[in-house]
Amino acid sequence: MEKAPPLAPLVQSSAETMSLHIFVCQLLKGKWKLLFSTLLGAALAFGLSVVVTPKWEVEAVIRVATVLGEPVESVQEFVDRLRSPYMVKSVLQARGLPPTSQNVKKLMEQTRLSVVGAGVQIRVRADSDTDATRLAQTYLDLAVQQHEQQVQTMIEAIKKHALLEQLATRYSDVHYFSDKKSSLPDVVDLLRSSETRFTVPPSSFPKPVFPNRILFLAAGILAGLALGLIWVFHGKAPTESGR
Amino acid sequence: MHDVVRRKLPQILLLAQLVFAVFSLFHFLSYGRLPAPFFYDVTDSFMDFFNTNYWAFQSGRFDQWRSIYPIFSFVLSKWVTSTQCIEMVATPHALRACDASAMYYLLATYLAGCALCAGMLARAFGRTTSHGFLDACLWFGVLALSLPGLYALERGNYILVAFLCLVLARRYPDDWRFALFLALAINIKQYLLVLCLGPLLKQRFDQLLLIIVFSLLINVCGLLLVPETHYSMLIDNMTTFSTTVLPSMFEKMWNPSAVAAFARAVEGTAYLSSGESWKIDGVRVLLGGMVWAGRGVAVAMFFALCLRANAVSANFIMLAMLVTLCAMSDSPGGYSTVLLFPFLPALFERPMARGYTLLLLGLYMPMELSIGPFRHFDAMDSFLSGSVLPEIVLGVSAGAYVRALSLYSLMCLMFCDLVKINGKSSAAGAPCPVLS
Q1: d(CA B124, CA B342)
Q2: Ramachandran assignment for B146, one of left (phi > 0), alpha (psi -120 to 50 degrees), beta (any other)
Q3: Could you tell me which residue ranges the Polysaccharide chain length determinant N-terminal domain spans (chain A) (predicted)?
Q4: Cross-chain residue pair A11–B63, CB shorter than 8 Å
């Protein structure tokens, strides 16, 4: 194999540049160093991804309770409620875990919420898929409890403000109610169309979501490559007179 | 006169900035708020910082908050945010109230950047003087009290961390650390990618490759530390941010770095419709013409740099790209001119240093007298003073116009410098690196 030319200042009588040819030669000359460091980085990253505790994730969609077709709170308010430290601490307590700073921070980081149509998508991570499902269920249970109170409050408010009469007028032609001769409070209860519930039940991914082996490997390869490039070029790069 | 300005640049700037600082202090004590351009929306003080910090711990940072910051910003945010506060708050404003001391990290970063940069500027500028330490102290004062830096602090923008990274990159120009710090800066403000043109045109392919590898590595490590499934939305968010309809002309003109910001601000605004039509058309044509002429200069500058890269330093190339970016893009605020500081020594070594000095004076001189347009502000609470501010009318300051024009002129002067270099090189029969 032909030996690569030594690295030297080139091009237009300037000592500050490196031609593409010399750069490629230098890279080829140091290819074993580059390969070694890249493989080492990849191996270390892979080893790390095997050693760390895997995380499982479940995904579910929650729909907010409605009264007379209107949600008891907006989806964004519901997201903020689920995201609040109070809710996180409540979830921890309900799961029998102490609400320490570390646990709160961990659960906040491991719970991701986003608005999906009229519902809220919740994704929870834990050390096993069973734990993650239980956490998601706990979020729902607590939300149901809180919304139940809000629903009751709203119904009471409707009764108090005599909206029932308007409601009766509005629905007087509905045969169901007239045939049944239901009392107005019953009508209100029936029109409370839904409670807070899962529209998509918690389901886990088939594989753990952490460690992401591809990301770990990418980080290892890039770190190894960076170290290899420093190894190959460090101390040999020409200085730039213009700086 | 020009020589006096050239020799006394740090003294003149520092004196003006001290006067402005004293004025600002009295203004704050008297009215409970800082003067223009700091005061714009006091409910927004430091919120570039605390919004990022808050969303570092929440999902939806790219799909819900529509972040235009790369993932590395959120890694930094996680490091500086108090865990006690983040578990107690439900909004970014509540985080600001709880964790206000986190701003000291940004302040310390800024002062560290100023201190390191002052040494470089003093060395470059002080070749004609022998008072090295005194010069460094003067430059430190100039940088620390400069309006773009203080404005970035008031906004709480992570650009100050990018500034420190650029200063550190400049300290190790021939080292792998140059690539590392530049990659870090690019991962805070992605438009700094234009600085890669420096190593590329200087044919430092080793550094260029390292910058690319480090940038990718920082991104991947960022994704490991801050898990994010919607990172690909960053590009979409950036394009949406830059092309979105302006909510307010006033906001665009408040403290811009570019003439382009004024041109965009007057497009279809109702403010000018009250004036005479020929004047309105005149302003629009003038600004539009300046923007198009500037674009021509920017393209020509790019080709000139490619043609004569061997005749200028890498710092000059990087500064030229930064100046062009700041002068032609309306998206970065006026605080983006803080990024020019580490590369300013490249100007002092040029034959046109006198002209550059005068333009730098215009660029960094605080000239904050409201000259309009004006806008009415409702009463609001001040975060800094804690007092309730009454309704006021505030106007865009003279400094906003002078800075944009100075930066535009600086770009043109750098282009003239390159044309001159090209003329001399051609006359001397020097080969052109791109063509040879």
Answers
A1: 11
A2: beta
A3: 18-70
A4: no
Query: B428 at the A interface (CB within 8 A)?
Result: no
Residue A210 DSSP code: B
Q: Is B245 helix (H, G, I), strand (E, B) or coil?
A: coil
Contact between B228 and B61 (Cβ < 8 Å): yes
- Alpha-carbon span B333 to A151, nearest angstrom: 48
Q: Are B12 and B5 in contact (CB under 8 A)?
A: yes
* Residues of A with Cβ-Cβ distance to B318 under 8 angstroms: none
Partners of A126 in beta bridges: A56
Could you tell me if A161 and A188 are in contact, meaning their C-beta atoms sit under 8 angstroms apart? Answer: no
Contact B188, B70 (CB under 8 A): yes
Q: Is B223 on the interface with A (CB under 8 A)?
A: yes
- B231: distance to nearest CA of chain A, Å? 13
Domain A56-204 in CATH 2.40.10? The answer is no
Number of H helices, E strands in chain A: 10, 6
Alpha-carbon span B213 to B275, nearest angstrom: 54
How far apart are the CA of A154 and the nearest CA of chain B, in angstroms? Answer: 25
Could you give the ipTM of this predicted complex? 0.82
Do you find a cis peptide bond into A211, omega within 30 degrees of 0? yes
CA distance A112 to chain B (A): 5
Query: Can you point out the beta strands (E) in B155-291?
Result: none
